[in-house]
Input
Amino acid sequence: MKGTLRRISCFFTLLFALLLSSIYGFAAENTEYKFTDVNPYKVWKIKFNKEIDEKYLKSVQAALKDQQGKITFLPISLSVDNKAILIEPPSGGYKQLSSYELKIPSGLKAKDGEILEKASSIKFNVREKIKIQGVLQERSYFTEGKDMIFYIYSNTDKEVQYNVKVTDINGKVYNITDGFSNNIKGNSTYKIKLDKLSSGQYLLNVYMKVVGEREIYTDDGIGYHDRYHSVFKVNKNNTKYDFMNDNIKFENFYFIEDNKYILMKNSTILNPSFEGKDDFEYSLKVMNVENGKIDKNAVKFGQMFKWSPKDSKDLLLEIGIKTSTGENLGSKVINVVTNNMTVKYVDYNMTVKEFAIKQKNNERMIIYGGNGMWRTPTLEEVEYYIDPQNFMDEYGMYQFLILNYVEGMTVEEVNEILKGKGILEGKGAAVLEGAKKYNINPAYLIAHIILETGHGKVSKLAKGIRVTSVEGKSVDPRIVYNMYGIQAIDANPNKYGSEYAYKQGWFTPEIAIIEGARWVGENYINSDKFEQNTLYEMRWNKSVMWHQYSTDVKWAYGQIKRIKDYLKNSENLKLVFEIPRYRK
Output
C-alpha cells in the first residue's frame, strides 16, 4: 500500500488557475480542496500524467452540492490528450455569491490499471459575474465634426481589456481599439474617443474580457466575458449644442488631464455653468465607478447648486441641462477623480504686477536665454512666473506643495527610490526619521540629498572624508559625512563642509542624513521668520526678499519633476497645496 501511495503521490499534485482550474490528481486519502472567487462558468480540470481509462467515465458523475444541500449530478468528460477529466458547470453556470462542494467519485483508473482508491472533494465560493457595468456617452447630443467620447467601466477590480467597434448604417465597421485594448483596472473609467463622424445612426459594440481568464463567449471570432451594444446618433452641425464642449467651472483647485477632472478633496462645484450660459438650470447624477452605485438625486434642477466629493473616488458626473423655460437640452458626462490632496489659499494684499515690480526692484534676477547664456528677465517674464494661474495644471501645481512632513511614505518606498544611489542606497529609514523629526516632506528631503550628493556617487562629503584637524587644531581622526553640503564654502568646500560635519558629530551616513535635515528645516521650511514651506515661496518670498533660494525666475518650476516623481512611489500620502491668491 505504501508503494502505491508513493506512486500515486508522485504524479498527483495541485494547481489552481482562475477560470479553467486544473487539479493535478488526488492523494489516496480523502482530500478536500478549497477555492474562493470562482467564476460562475468555471470548468474544473483534473490532470494526471497517465492516460485515463475512458470506460470508467461513462458510468460515473460528479456530485455537486449547493449551500442548501441540494445535489446535482454533473457529467465527467475526458480531455483531448486523455490525461485529464473535465467537469463543466451546470446549465446557466454556478449561482453567483454562493458556495458549493463538488465530490469526485472514487475508482478512477488509468489504462495501466492504477486507480484512485478514495473520493475527494472541492469546496468553492462563486463570485459575482464580471460584467460591463456601464457605458456612458459624454454628451447626449453628438454633432458631426466634433470628437465623441464614451466612458466604459466594469464591476471588478481585476484587470480587463476592451474591444470597441462602431458600425454605420451601411455596415461599415470602425475598429476603434484595433483589437483588445491594453490592461486597465475594471472598476476605473476607460475612455474612448471616436474620430469625427458624419451625421447618421451608428451601432456601438463593446467586448470585455478579464485578463488571465478563459473567455466564456465567442462572437465573430472574438472571445469575451461580457458584451454591450447600443445605438447612438450623430446630428448635423447645430450650434445649439456647441456649448457642451465647454469645461465646467469648479471652485477651488482642480486640473484636467486627458478629459478627466482631477479634484482636490475640498473642491466644490458651486455652479456648473458653461461660458455664456449662466441662465440655464442644471441637475446632477453622481455615479461611483468603483461599485456602480448611482446617486440619482444628488442635485435637482436649479440655477445654482453646491456639490463636493466626499471620498477619494473615480466618479462620473452626469449634468442635466435645460433652459429656464423648461426646454431639455440634454446632458453632459464628465469624469471626476478625487484624491487625498487638499488645497489652501493664502491671500496676498497686492496684484501680481505689484509683486513682480517689488521683486524686480529688490533683487538681481536671471533667466536662461539659450546657448549657455543667462540674461536679465523682462517684467512680463517675472509676472508670468509669479502668477499661480499660469501653473494650474497637473505639473505646475507641485510648486505649491507644502513641504512640511506628511505621513504615508514607507521605508520600502524610499529605499526603492534610493536604489543605485551610491552611499544613499538602503538609507530609507534614516531619511524618514530625519523628515519626521524636523518636519520636512520626505519627497523634498529625498530630492535635496540626491541633488546635493550627485545621486550619492559624486560628492566626496557624502561618501566620507577623514578629518584630522578642525579650524587648525588637531582632533581625533574620524571619517565624517555631510549629505546636504552644509557650510561647504566655495573656497574649499570639502575642508569646510567636513569640519562642520565633525563639529556636529556626523560620523555615520545615517546621522548625517537625519541631523542634516535640521538645517534644511530651520532655514527655510519651518522658519517663522522666512515662511518658505513651498518651492514657490522659497523662490518668491513676499516678506524677506533677500532670503530666496535662487535668482533664476524659473527655479521653482524647474524643481518640480524630481519631487513629483518621488511622490508617485507612494499612493498613501495626504498632500496639501498652498496657493497664493492675488488681488485682481
